[in-house]
Amino acid sequence: MKRPMTCIECPQGCRLEIEADGARVISVTGHKCPRGDKYARQEVEAPMRTLTTSVLTRGLELKMLPVRTSKPIPKEKLFETMAAIKRIVVSSPVKAGAVVATDFLGMGVDLVACRSLNKA
Length: 120
Fold this sequence. Notes:
Layout: E1 2-6, E2 15-21, E3 24-29, H1 34-45, E4 48-49, E5 52-57, E6 64-69, E7 73-74, H2 78-85, E8 89-90, E9 99-101, E10 111-113
Parallel strand pairs: 5-8
Antiparallel strand pairs: 1-2, 2-3, 4-7, 5-6, 6-10, 9-10
């Protein structure tokens, strides 16, 4: 089965054509750099995403703290991750880049604050 895809790894935005047998890539064409081939294979065989969202706060200057995962996580884990994030409440002041939760859900990624927040 062949399917088209646009590469997002560099500004060229190459139009890729992926030939796959289920979840296994057979060939990738249309890429102008090696990153296109790697991107297509990753996206078909094991898609990953960096999750950006917010967690609740208590006693801080804003009601929500923007957070993100420190590195991409498997796409199929996004809903499970969001369910766990909904249970987090931050009540201490934080600085941008601070780790809110380490080794989140045992995936080897941290949940990181995207901005600083002080007490209300």
